[in-house]
Amino acid sequence: MLQKTGKFFKKFFSYFGKTELRVIKSSGIIFFKDYMLKTNLIKNICNTITDNRNPLLIHFLPYELIAIMILRILDGELRFYHQKNPINDELYKSFIGVDRVPHFITLRYYLNRNPHTSFELEEILSRQVYEEIEKRKLKELTIDIDQTGRVVYGHQQGVKKGYVSGQKNKKCYQLQTVYIRELSMLFNIEINPGNEHCAKDFHLRLQTIIQPLLERKIKLFIICDSGYGSEEIFNYLDKNNVDYIFARKQAEDVKTRGKNAKSKQEYRDPSTAETELIIKERKWNSAREIFIQNKILCDELGQYWLKEFESNEFTNVLITNISAEKEKVYLLYKKRANVENVIKELKNDFGFGIAHNKTLNYNRSLATLVAIAFNLKNSFTEYLISKNAISFKAFPTLSTLRNSIIHIPGILVNSKGKNTIRLTEKFMNKLYNIFLIFNYKLN
User: Which neighbouring-strand residues pair with 418?
Assistant: First the structure.
């Protein structure tokens, strides 16, 4: 009905030559545009990105191109290759005042002349995090590191057959994410060939991640799964006074140490009445190995009972250098599930920057753009919550924000050279507080 009404008024106003009218389906994306201008993101892009193109052939400046790419990602344009989504082109044109707008194929041509852009985008991503750390004056950070496979179809540079959960022997990329719990932001994202193990060169990558934070005298806490653990990593973290919890691979020697552990303590998890844990601990070099069994069985009468602790039935084996109680160590590691939800959101809602493009550099650049968009989404949500503009039962995903804020149908009117967005009364009432925050004029 809205489209039909829009087409009617478009013809009506065009006949009298008074105005131009367009129907748009994502009026709420303008909130993200204005919030982006409130932050230093555009300033960081202008100060960081270098452009080697011929000035006479430039149609879009780098900050225009990257800003529109981020908005398109938030808007839900997941087909990052040959086509563009023309639905909201009129809205994007009004953002930057041009006759046509950039899309993802434009980014591909830009990267042909500027292959170094992926490194510059990584710098912008890290600056985004540093500014938030300084703003909140944080002195301690908890960093979750995880890697996942992403199946990719077609012939692309860097795609190799590797392990993807549920789809073994498929061509994929390995995607490593570095997530900061206190900020709910991504600090780093990296694409590797599908056949590369997450532990390959992890020592060098870890140094590049944590060294700048250590130089800022921030206390770090690293949490990883079993794929990253090695004695070299543990020694490096101990040397730099970094706390850590790593999961342990349950090899035979690890199982034997668990079986021979001296201490045995039963513990009931207060968060779940039906779950019981048995936790054992022993020293391993300068660290501690913690063995957890969470096993509930049911007898013939339907009653629950806890099976005796056996060395080959561990739920988790953890290694850590912190002196906290065993139960607290286990609960800290369980919160690592947050990064799994982040990866799920990046894959489903953001597309995780994997495009049908043969160039690995393009996919790396696009993955970093997705990470920047993810951080912008989370900081935007924190901003709305801090201003009491909107409330959520839980921290919202991008899908939730699209349904409640971004994908709002409206009519874009250009009257006397001034762009105006007209919304229904329903959405005006729903988003009234947000309009007030951004100082929009309400008629």
Answer: 415
